Amino acid sequence: xxxxxxxxxxxxxxxxxxxxxxxxxxxxxxxxxxxxxxxxxxxxxxxxxxxxxxxxxxxxxxxxxxxxxxxxxxxxxxxxxxxxxxxxxxxxxxxxxxxxxxxxxxxxxxxxxx
Length: 114
Description:
- The chain is mainly β.
- Helix content is 11%, strand content 35%.
- It has a single domain (9-101), classed as Chitinase A, domain 3, CATH 3.10.50.40.
- It has helices at residues 45-51, 91-96, and strands at 9-19, 24-27, 34-37, 59-64, 77-88, 100-102.
- The protein is globular, with a radius of gyration of 13 Å.
């Protein structure tokens, strides 16, 4: 059975984030994936909700408005996401709570949001 993005999974993604003008704000496709603990509030709720149910290798285009979680920005966003890996979180990761790990750069996206 193929594992899906769900609560208590560690998900590795790469993405390109665009503003409403189509300008690239961030591109992690050539970088190490961003890893996060799904369901722990580590990433914006609208993004997390749109990733639920995806499987390894799936790609999805996600539109996120200011009202859906980027209120500090003056724009809406389009994010093209690729799911690189999904695994069940370890007991230690679950105890620690939020997990956001990006090997190359700890800051991602506007205001440090992934």
